[in-house]
Write a structure and sequence with these properties.
The chain is an alpha+beta fold. 41% of the residues lie in helices and 21% in strands. Helix 8 runs antiparallel to helix 9, helix 8 crosses helix 10 and helix 11 packs antiparallel against helix 12.
């Protein structure tokens, strides 16, 4: 087996002991960007250009927003935080290139089949690879101990187990429902109108959107096993993100799982084990779900017929496609537009 991962461009500490403005300043030093205002930075170096902003929305609740145009692939390595400086993170992106949409698209997070949210704790050493040049949008929500003390004193059992875990935890979720809505809102709220600025409504709106995202992600976490079957090594999380990317690259000519395993340096059994640990299902189940989601998007957003949508996600027989579609959504492809919400 071969491991085709590369050395990271930058190594980033979670910096749990710092506030969000210090974190932005730290990232600026790594990229060579120029600070424009506290907590807001214009980034420009040979790897790309962009804008990074940071806010402390409440005690223990911080938000980092990054929109950029990468000129080349970029890999960041996040090291674990010390036990006495815990920080829990939710990373969200609608970029197809992150193994972790154009900003002009009206509803990119709702239309993209590549949007993802990742939940992880401070014990995890995480490699994040933006594998292609192009536009990216990313949000990072950082939760510190005061957030649990002030905002969620009576926590559900599965949230408590996640917070108190003494080993690395890493979970992936499709960017949909409440998390997708909050993602879009936060990028819209970062450009408030003059009237909103005068009313100082922005921080309240941002906090509400962040809490909606947290509610959605932690609600979905309840359906996952919180007892990992294997300890995540530093590159395992990135490998599994890469597996997902390779699986979804071409529905008409999908890669065999054995080929994907060789590409990322994982044996078949280990790949299945880690994939289930991160995404909560088998690779085939996840592939089939995404296949149907893409077909649904093609019909409802691109105006494709059921036959064309089925063909574009790899079906040559319309009856088989209709059966699989109904199994996932509860209705036939021809009724997708009527059931669109």
């Amino acid at each position: 087996m071969t491991d085709n991962t590369r050395n990271p461009d930058s190594s980033v500490s979670p910096l749990a002991e710092t506030d969000i403005h210090q974190l932005v300043d730290h990232l600026v030093k790594l990229s060579g960007g120029a600070i424009s205002t506290p907590g807001q930075t214009t980034l420009s170096d040979p790897r790309g250009t962009g804008l990074m902003q940071g806010w402390e929305l409440a005690s223990g609740v911080e938000l980092l927003q990054w929109r950029a145009h990468l000129k080349q692939p970029l890999e960041l390595q996040r090291s674990p935080a010390p036990e006495q400086q815990p920080v829990w993170s939710i990373l969200l992106t609608d970029s197809a290139s992150l193994v972790a949409s154009d900003a002009q698209s009206p509803k990119p997070a709702e239309r993209s089949r590549n949007g993802m949210a990742y939940l992880y704790n401070h014990h995890l050493a995480l490699n994040m690879l933006f594998g292609k040049a192009g536009h990216i949008r990313m949000l990072l929500i950082r939760l510190k101990p005061p957030a649990w003390q002030h905002l969620l004193k009576q926590r559900p059992r599965h949230v408590d187990e996640f917070i108190n875990a003494q080993e690395p935890r890493f979970y992936g979720f499709d960017l949909q429902a409440g998390s997708a809505k909050g993602f879009v809102q936060l990028f819209e709220q970062a450009q408030p109108t003059l009237a909103e600025q005068k009313q100082q409504a922005l921080p309240w709106q941002q906090l509400q959107s962040v809490l909606d995202i947290c509610s959605d992600i932690f609600s979905r976490l309840e359906y996952r096993s919180l007892q990992p079957t294997a300890r995540l090594r530093p590159r395992d999380a990135m490998r599994i993100q890469r597996v997902r990317q390779l699986m979804l690259e071409d529905f008409q000519s999908p890669l065999d799982l054995a080929i994907i395993g060789r590409e990322v340096g994982l044996g078949r059994d280990k790949l299945r084990q880690l994939f289930g640990q991160v995404f909560g299902c088998t690779p085939f189940q996840y592939y089939q779900q995404q296949r149907m989601q893409e077909a649904h998007r093609l019909i409802t957003h691109e105006g494709c017929s059921a036959m064309d949508a089925g063909y574009r996600v790899g079906y040559s027989h319309l009856g088989h496609f209709a059966q699989a579609f109904k199994k996932q959504f509860g209705y036939l492809p021809k009724d997708a537009r009527l059931n669109q919400t």
